[in-house]
Amino acid sequence: MLLFARTGQTQLADERLAPLDAVAAHVAMLEENPHFRRELLYGSARKLVSMADRWSSVRPLLKQLVNDPEPVPDAVSIELANAFLARGKPISKVTLGASRYSGFTQSETSTAWCGASVVVGFNDTGSEIKTLLGGSGISALGYSNSDNRGMAFSYFGSPPAASNASQAMLGEPSLACADSSNFYYASIWTDEVQSRSGVAIAKSVDGGKTFTAPSIAIAKPPFSHIVDHDWLAVDRSSPANLYIVYLDLDYSGSVCGVDQDNQEIPRYAIESISSTDGGSAWSVQPTVIEEECANQSDPSVSLAGPEVAVGPGGEVYVAWEAMGENGGSLTAREIRTAKSIDHGTTFTAPLTVAPVSIIGNGADLQGFVRSSEFPNLAIGTGKPNSGVIYLSWSSAGFTIPDAITTIGSYGFADVMFSQSKTGESWSAPVRVNNNPEGGSLPLSDQFQPSIGTDRTGKIGICFYDRRRDLNNFLIDRYCASSKNGGTSWTNIKITPTNFASLVGQDELVAPDYMSDYNTVAADGLGQSSGLIDSYSSNAAGNPNVMTNRF
Known about the structure:
The protein is mainly beta. The chain has 5 helices and 31 strands. Helix 1 (13-31) crosses helix 2 (43-53) and helix 1 (13-31) runs antiparallel to helix 3 (55-67).
């Protein structure tokens, strides 16, 4: 999300926006590095670069908004009452009082469920507008809370922003809970004056109704790092133990050195930090799970999309996507995992789960929707599947020539599934979406899967799905479930009507952004069966966060 800073209501807009000017200049400096590749960026990093590229046109709009703000109401989009008639419940709100060009995008969800308490966090440009007009830091986050196991939600807007006006919570929400009272909300954090990037975390002790101001879990050295795609997990066997993984894009040259022209060589690293006291203190030094240098022999190398989950015995599992290694092209991709049995102090060497066939053109799907093949991770907690590790991701089932794409082809996304009992070997991938394709049958995209498993052993995977549009534009939400350990899958359509992709209509997000992930959550305490899917629907004409319990 966009970085904002506000230094007080009485100061001039230029002074309020000065830290943003510094950030835009800093990003522009990174882009001058010949090794900088925007096509390898995802999530908040991509949004930050996109906004920096458009800063000269966006800045005058923000200056006008800060100089002459309009009231920002807590108004629910009028369409919501009639737009969703069957499955799914809207839980976010739309802000249109300050501007018609932003404030209406709520997407990219993370859900935590413990007992009666459920919290869904999401990126929220409405919060971004409101906190811009406030007196403290900026927050691009929102959340909604339920105290009746997801039957009804209340929208609370943003969790508290940092008190320092130069700091911002950029989005990429990741939530977890230790019990029905203690919830945690992690997000990408930045200090715009110092140009530092990292992850911060807020805590709730009342079931996710209120949160503390964010505290810094990891902060990278200034001017040379971009931190992206944080993911948070709680150890159920010892609930004070928390783990965060993230991607560190490092342009310092301290590890990978410089090239023959003295330009810093980028380092892509999957790193982990941990806390043993419920998030009050974190590792002094992160654990590096995998790192790669995008040097002359590996110019297309990249790592992305890390997730973490904890097994019943305290085992820590991390999954991510690796690209372009060993001199391969950007289309050479695979899903990898690593395991720790010493509370995240050390990890096994990366293990390949499966190769990936890129979806779309490797960056965007049809309709210019940003998407990826990132893995989604869950661990069984029921008697039938305790400790079994499950993975879902996207991979192209069919690839056709396409002369206009950057790679000369288009890959139609399928949802894949694999499992492991120990994390040391993985089952052959299984296709989850059951729509017939190929031959005379139309091809379509099923993408951005989310996985969860409940106390009964049921596995659920939910995803966006274009099977009902012969032209592969309109999108539904489908949820697949398996009660036999993933051997077979039942697919159920969740959305009453399909909807179009919506990109390029909110000034504060990247032009091709339609979220990078969603989540499926089970009751972490095992008191209730079933799963809660959270996602964003465009049916009302703008992205609204929805939930569906199944």
